[in-house]
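Exercise (ungraded).
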Amino acid sequence: MSSDLTRKTADELARALSAEEVSSVEVTRALVDRIESVDGSIHAFLHVDAEGALAAAADVDRRRADGDQLPYLAGVPIAIKDVLATKGMPTTCGSKILDGWIPPYDATVTARIKAAGLPILGKTNMDEFAMGSSTEHSAYGPTHNPWDTTRIPGGSGGGSAAAVAAFEAPLAIGTDTGGSIRQPGALTGTVGVKPTYGGVSRYGLVAMASSLDQAGPVTRTVLDAALLHELIAGHDPMDSTSIPDAVPAVVAAARRADVKGLRIGIVRELGGEGFQPGVEARFTEAVELLTSAGAEVVEVSIPSLRYALGAYYLVMPSEASSNLAKFDAMRYGVRVPPAGVDDPSAEQVMASSRDAGFGDEVKRRIILGTYALSSGYYDAYYGSAQKVRTILSRDFAAAFADVDVLVSPTSPTTAYPLGDKLDDPLAMYLGDVATIPANLVGIPGLSLPVGLADEDDLPVGLQFLAPQKADDRLYNAAAALEQLLEQKWGGTLLSRAPELEAIR
Amino acid sequence: MTVETLVPFEEALTRYDPVMGLEIHIELNTATKMFCGCPTEFGAEPNTQVCPVCLALPGALPVVNAKAVESAIRMGLALNCEIAQWCRFARKNYFYPDMPKNFQTSQYDEPIAFDGYVDVEVDGETFRIEIERAHMEEDTGKALHVGGSTGRIHGADFSLVDYNRAGIPLIEIVTRTIEVPPEKAPAVARAYVSHVRDLIGGLGVSDVRMDQGSLRADVNLSLKPKGSTTLGTRSETKNVNSFRSVERAVRFEISRHAGILDAGGRVVQETRHFQEDTGTTLSGREKSDADDYRYFPEPDLAPVSPSREWVEELRATLPEPPAVRRARLQADWGFSDLDMRDTIGAGALDLIVATVEAGTTPQAAKKWWLGEMARRANESGHDLDALGITPQQVAEIQGLIDAKRINDKLARSVFDGVIAGEGTPEEVVVSRKLEVVSDDGALGAAVDRAIEGDPDAAAKIRAGNLGVAGALIGAVMKEMRGQADAGRVRELILEKLS
């Protein structure tokens, strides 16, 4: 039975656990075994805490046996992206500079997960400080796509997406600054949601770009994503950008799954040139399915989208350059004294530690951001980028006056081979063209697998976008499409993924 | 080190006009820090008042202390400022080991309070100091340089950082260029800082102790040749820890700048540190126009937008304006204009208020604070409130005089004892055996000996020439080592020689 347990959705596990058909220890043990068996070829995890997860599972089992009222997902194991602080468990952000750092506190997301009784399997791989779209920028080596281990799983949250796609965890937490949850979701055939900015607390999420970062669920089904979303979302007084309103009813929306009369806008600018034919084909078929289910589909134009990528690559590095200044080897992290200096000053130690501790992509963005904020350039770069955000927000608001949700392919391409774009940052940045706007505008986005591209048999994702605080619309529409697709396929997309060779 | 030629202050002003501005940093006395819940108590064990936020651990986020915003608004209102309808924090980016995030969360182009003024009085003349802005920010940690002789970073063996102070709420008050007659500049600078201290102290939002660093003044100064409109290069003098030092720092910098300019030199734009012992300033960190703090709005904090209703509620909590208060006190105390001017000039107003409240007459309180205490302050270079004696202790000592247990002269020894930490005035009187002798037996014997010792004087007094009684009183007092009630001695002499 244990191999079956790894294939179950979080919702199925939650029901089996509460019916006491299975124990959390059994589920956790099955997943720990699966990780041990396949992660050698995937490298989704940077740190596995089998002991801690099993202890948490045993605790939940005991409380259940005692008759305690437990949260719905209690006992369902989860993996957490290594960018969220976990008390007593290493948190590296995929960087050498935090090698060995053990946080003395929990991120709010971590705390809510622990409080709800979800055993934490470990921390997942990522591009260093979430900077990248392929997980190749991890200082600890890349993650491999479970669909084809010679290919990237997307990034920066390639570890969380691959862990879920490879059945190493039913649930994972990702973070999304420009698409880091949604794009890996698309490339691995999993569901990834970036909630409304402020919907999930950022306290304890090691910031890349404060005004763009958002944590969210990484799962295999829309309902699982909604269940996890509801668990981690909600106001947090420790994050002043956290929304005080009630969390949208995402689980109810995922169960409703009804698009009759729903107005759906296809974003004209997010398609065509640069988009792989197989991606466009699956996207178009999915939209046709929605139409057949009663949705009203129209084409929408958002002309200011052409400035989004440029604005993003000014705002994100600017904020990152300042956020990453704290990594100076004074209070924590790896300290590397400068070579050949007898009596180095604190400033020299800071400089040499940062030089040794940060990878090239991180340095590139720090340099870009430092430049963009410099006196004399601020107005032209950071200032202009903020104006673009304002215009984009206005244009999205206008679009949402006519439609309930917007759709586009999540990523212009399917997963590309490892190393393919490593020497061409610009080509890699272009892969985020469809996901970045949601971060700039603060709206929620969800990526749903909609099939395999004809040319390479690799997963394609469709992205739903909704207005701020209307995350429930994403879940309703995506759950409906998920049902339609699975009826058509006669099963889930992931059931078509190749069996991973067990490596022991 | 270059040897600088100083030009005497008065001579400097014949050729140059000073251009001066002041920045005052005030540490708020909120119970918790600006952006986290850590306590702010002064003098705690190093690094015991810290958390993930003020240590800038990865992932931690700031939250604005609402009480600090309230204090900032009240302070802005007291400084006659406008209060912003909407303002943001900004990040001031620079690397420094005692600054955990390597940026300071401050306000930049959107301060909470702006466009205010205060009126200060110097020698009976009123000067209006315009306030450009008062903004909220956080303090840094404190570096301690160990080893070496100077306690400064150069030559130290290693440095330790105490982050207890990191994140303490600060309000920075920035003046516009202070336009006053050049010769008044040092006194006006001092009066301004003293005025702000009284003003903010009255609000109860800060301890405003210069000696403990809860009020810190920086003097920005440059000179321009008389008649010229071109501004000179300015220096920024820090470490000015008393009102008196403010005045001295301005005078010194005028002399120093003039010396450099006279010699055809170039003033370096830099931070300078005031040296209390010599009254001079030493070069600190060089600043240049290349310094670029890369300010941008703090994305981790929501904007602050105080409602007008709240601002008006806070305005209603402001204490009596200083000018009104001074007029009231002057009338209550019966002080002359000159008395009042001296009181304010010495920074003694609140001390006299407290001494009077403790039961002393205004005249006696003024006598001690502007006489004996002012002399001691001047000698030690401390401000009056940092002498180590409280208004309550002064009142207690005056009470001992009124009860004729000591006299004015003995009181000085009591002050010495109290300041030296020997205990309460009462304890000092006992331990130093200062109580005056009012026992007529002992005094009578001393008077008899004095009369015997100076028959000429005794004869003159008998003949009605009371003017020479002083000689006999002096002799008695000398024998009693000053511990006698001089009035009673005089009475006894006159009784015996009548």
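Further reading is listed at the end of the chapter. For now, observe: Residues 440-496 of chain B form a domain with the Arc Repressor Mutant, subunit A fold (CATH 1.10.10). The mean pLDDT of chain B is 91.
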